[in-house]
TrEMBL record:
This is MarR family transcriptional regulator. InterPro entries: HTH_MarR-typ, MarR/SlyA-like, WH-like_DNA-bd_sf, WH_DNA-bd_sf. Residues 1-134 form the HTH marR-type domain. It comes from the Bacteria.
Amino acid sequence: MVHGLRELVVQLNLFGSEFARTHGLHTTDVRALIALLDAARAGRIATPGWLGQQLGLNSASTTALVDRLEKDGLVSRERDARDRRRVKLQVTESAEQLGWSFFGPLIGQAVGVLDSFSPDELATIDEFLARMRAVVENVRETGAGPVP
């Protein structure tokens, strides 16, 4: 099961790298766009500091990344109306359309696969993924090696 999951992660990374290469982006650009889209879907305000934290980047690298995405018309910066010192990041409509044009077929087929599972099976899959994310986060945060 773990090897199958790793294989899936490798395939998804290759797919994302192909998208990046096709559109003249860095793989970090794609990860940033995904993080920003996920934030928007969750109703979370995305700031450059938040984005840098999500991607494991320092401030200078995050600024260069956001500058590059803004120059390419994929991200916009806007001042927070409640706190003018804070800058919010938004994925542009053209970035969303670009993403859907490439990832749409994959997402559509993935949803089709999910539709073939019962609600109980989906709950089990969701629990498995949540636990696996927790394991990865724990190992990243603690640097823990293999569990005996």
